[in-house]
Structures are given as structure tokens and as C-alpha cells.
Specification:
The chain is 31% helix and 23% strand. By secondary structure, it is of the alpha+beta class. It has three domains: 74 residues, no CATH class; 89 residues, 3-Layer(aba) Sandwich (Rossmann fold), CATH 3.40.50; 106 residues, Hypothetical Protein Yjia, Chain: A,domain 2. A hairpin with a 2-residue loop joins strand 8 and strand 9. The protein is globular. Belongs to the SIMIBI class G3E GTPase family. ZNG1 subfamily. It catalyses: GTP + H2O = GDP + phosphate + H(+).
Length: 278
């Protein structure tokens, strides 16, 4: 971390971690190190954590979000994935028929924001329709991701910072889920690839039964579903509160968010992002 010291001089400061991958072997040490940073520097607005391009974001996302639920001083804001527009289709097609999925699928599946970079290289050789096809390809994996086109990764920071993607009460997340006409499912549901599945139901649900059902899917892999992310809104019986559901791998929460508004059609809508969703 580089800060401005006395007389405007730049001073490097370090928080040391044990050797290992931050996404698996030292992820808990990383959280402790981040909390140390916050204690050292009270005025930190954001911490940008850049992992290797081969990283699986799931373990790190889970531990950071769990730490947030335990009232840690560090809160997971969002996951941003940079995609190479020129080589994306090659990377995806290379593993599409494989029983295991490379990091390209996982990083897109877990992303809240996808930066589609090097779009100038695509548009130089192909038509504008090629970029739209790439965006459709990304949304076929994760229909909830916000896609930003870029050249040399130059983006407005307001589009990637303070997204509050893990804040159940944030209005932005509810808009897409409550937009009844918007289709959030993707791909062929009998395809074994990574995709998005959206389930809709109008009748009020029993919250206890929903918890049991979600736990069977996330914990016991019921129906063979391997869920990476899950978001949803619930119409709970005997309650005037809109409840939100969010999950990262096995960790989930269902919380009352606000009252249903008069103009809203009360419903249940749950979006699963994962593998073998049928």
C-alpha cells in the first residue's frame, strides 16, 4: 500500500501474509490482514483485491461475506471480472464439452460486474454484432451480471465501486428481480453447462419450508444441482415484508428487506447460477 507521507513523499507500507493462494490456503489470514489495514488506516474507502487470473473466487467470496455477517469491519462489496473480448469465445468453447469447468466459467458465474475489455480488437475485425454475441454469451452463464465495455480497462470507477452487491436491502438488486417481464433464465435447461435458472411462483410461501428446500439444494446438492450464486425475492405468508434471498455456495441468508409497495406484484422469484441446473 502506497501512501503520501510527510512533505508529500510516497511511503510504502506492507501487511505480510503467509505464502499461499489467497483464494484457498491463506484466505482466513487475508481477512485478518484486511482488518489490520482498516485499523491502521481509518480513512480507507475501498480495498481492491486483485487475484490471479486462474483464481476460483468462490472460497474467498464466501469467507468475506461470512465475515461481513459476523459484523467485521471489512465488507464484501462486489466481484468484478475482466474478460478478454478477443479470446473469450475460444476459452469457453475449448472447455464447453468438458465435465469440469475452467476458471473462465467460474469467474463469470460469480461476477457482479463483467468488464468486457479489448473491445477495440473485436470491432476492428468483426461487426458490432460480434460484441453483442459476446455479451449474450456472458449472460448465458450469468444473466444478472452488469457488463461494461472497455478499452485498456478504462472504466468509470462509479460503475465498479460501491456496488453493494451483497447488501440485501440495496434497491438495484431488487429491480431486476421484480421486473416480471424480464427473462433471467439462460441456455438449454438440459445442458450440463454453467447457466442461469429462474424460478417464479405467485403464491405466498412458508419461510421454514423454503429454508429446508434451499439447504437441500445448497448443502445436499439435491437434484444434482451445483449452485454457485443464488439471489431472490420472496413473498412470505402472513408477512407484509419483501424478503430477499442471497447465497454464495453453501452460505445463504434470507432477510426481510422492506414492505411490499402497492404498485408491486407480490411474487417469489429465485435465480440460481451454477452447473447442472435442471
Amino acid at each position: 500500500m502506497i501512501n503520501e507521507g510527510e512533505s508529500g513523499a510516497l511511503v510504502e507500507e506492507w501487511v505480510e501474509l503467509a505464502n499461499g493462494c489467497v483464494c484457498c490456503t491463506v484466505k482466513h489470514s487475508l481477512v485478518q490482514a484486511l482488518e489490520q489495514l482498516v485499523q491502521m488506516k481509518k480513512k480507507l474507502d475501498h480495498i481492491l483485491l486483485e487475484t490471479t487470473g486462474l483464481a476460483n473466487p468462490a472460497p474467498l467470496a464466501s469467507v468475506l461475506w461470512l465475515d461481513d455477517q459476523l459484523e467485521s469491519s471489512v465488507k464484501l462489496d462486489s466481484i468484478v471480472t475482466v474478460v478478454d473480448a478477443k479470446n473469450l469465445r475460444f476459452q469457453l468453447n475449448r472447455h464447453r464439452d468438458s465435465s469440469s469447468f475452467p476458471e473462465a466459467f467460474l469467474q463469470i458465474a460469480f461476477a457482479d460486474v463483467v468488464i468486457l475489455n479489448k473491445v477495440d480488437l473485436v470491432s476492428q475485425e468483426q461487426s458490432e454484432g460480434a460484441l453483442e454475441e459476446l455479451e449474450n454469451e456472458i449472460h448465458s452463464i450469468n444473466s444478472l451480471a452488469n457488463i461494461i465495455r472497455s478499452i485498456r480497462c478504462e472504466v468509470d470507477l462509479s460503475q465498479i465501486l460501491n456496488r453493494q452487491a451483497y447488501d440485501a436491502t440495496h434497491a438495484t438488486h431488487l429491480e431486476a428481480l421484480l421486473e416480471e417481464s424480464k427473462s433471467l433464465s439462460s441456455g438449454d435447461l438440459h445442458d450440463s453447462g454453467v447457466c442461469t435458472l429462474c424460478i417464479n411462483q405467485m403464491e405466498a410461501v412458508d419461510l421454514h419450508k423454503v429454508r429446508l428446500w434451499i439447504e437441500e439444494i445448497l448443502w445436499d446438492k439435491k437434484y444434482g444441482m451445483d449452485v454457485y450464486r443464488c439471489k431472490g425475492v420472496l413473498r412470505v405468508g402472513n408477512s407484509d415484508q419483501l424478503h430477499t434471498l442471497q447465497a454464495v455456495r453453501e452460505i445463504y441468508e434470507i432477510v426481510p428487506t422492506r414492505q411490499w409497495r402497492n404498485e408491486e406484484k407480490q411474487m417469489n422469484r429465485i435465480v440460481f447460477i451454477g452447473n447442472i441446473l435442471y
